[in-house]
Specification:
By secondary structure, the protein is α/β, with parallel strands linked by helices. The chain folds into two domains: 133 residues, Response regulator (Rossmann fold, 3-Layer(aba) Sandwich), CATH 3.40.50; 60 residues, Arc Repressor Mutant, subunit A (Orthogonal Bundle). Helices cover 50% and strands 12% of the residues. It contains ten helices and six strands, in the order βαβαβαβαβαβααααα. The longest helix has 16 residues. The protein is globular.
Length: 219
């Protein structure tokens, strides 16, 4: 059964082009199209796609900050940002809030297809221009004077806000029920955040997580 995809873009011509790529070139199934951000959460709840292809400029979406809510409510939905917005704040914000990939609309057809396949295979994907922004951001932080130890690239860099909050509470000895109550999320969502952050930090139990946190100067 092919992976299911929802396309969220306000331009019909763009949606048609993406749909062609997704269905004809990639062999996936577009199960819904969204042209306005105020119905996106409802559609995701009803359709439960494997992948959301999202333009951050979607009307009524609320910009990059909406990613936090989407990632929290739908942790199993992988999100590929396909947009014209290329400011560093937009890019870093989208990654902070859980986007699995970020590709500019000017990218080639083959690159968009690579992004889709990579994300569905559990990987991250960034187009060339976006990779340049990530590198510049990392180098600037690395050379900036700071008393704090830098986060290791590839580990803390892609923890979402909720995952970082969950990590902090785990290190304080809190269980999933307590984490859920404190963050006002369900126990199941707390479990998902715990699983995701342990996977990203490449640890398999609490002892390893505590050790890794110590290595990264988080304790």
């Amino acid at each position: 059964m092919p992976a299911s995809v929802i396309i969220a873009d306000d331009q019909e011509l763009v949606r048609d082009g993406i749909k062609y790529l997704v269905e004809i070139e990639a062999g996936l199934e577009v199960i819904h199209e969204v042209s306005n951000g105020n119905v996106l959460a409802k559609v995701l709840e009803q359709k439960k796609p494997d992948l959301l292809i999202l333009d951050l400029a979607l009307p009524e979406l609320g910009g990059v900050k909406s990613m936090d809510e989407l990632s929290e409510k739908f942790p199993k939905v992988k999100i590929l940002i396909l947009t014209m917005l290329d400011s560093e704040d937009q890019v870093m914000g989208a990654l902070e809030y859980g986007a699995a990939g970020y590709v500019l609309k000017g990218s080639s057809k083959s690159e968009i297809l690579k992004a889709i396949q990579a994300i569905l295979n559990g990987k991250k994907y960034f187009s060339g221009d976006i990779s340049g922004i990530l590198i510049s951001n990392y180098l600037r932080k690395k050379t900036a004077p700071s008393q704090e130890k830098e986060e290791e690239p590839g580990q803390l860099a892609f923890l979402t806000k909720r995952e970082k909050e969950t990590l902090n509470m785990i290190l304080k000895g809190k269980g999933n029920n307590e984490i859920g109550e404190a963050l006002k999320i369900s126990r199941r969502t707390a479990e998902t955040h715990r699983f995701n952050l342990m996977k990203k930090l490449q640890v398999s139990n609490l002892a390893e997580l505590t050790q890794k946190a110590g290595e990264l100067d988080l304790i």
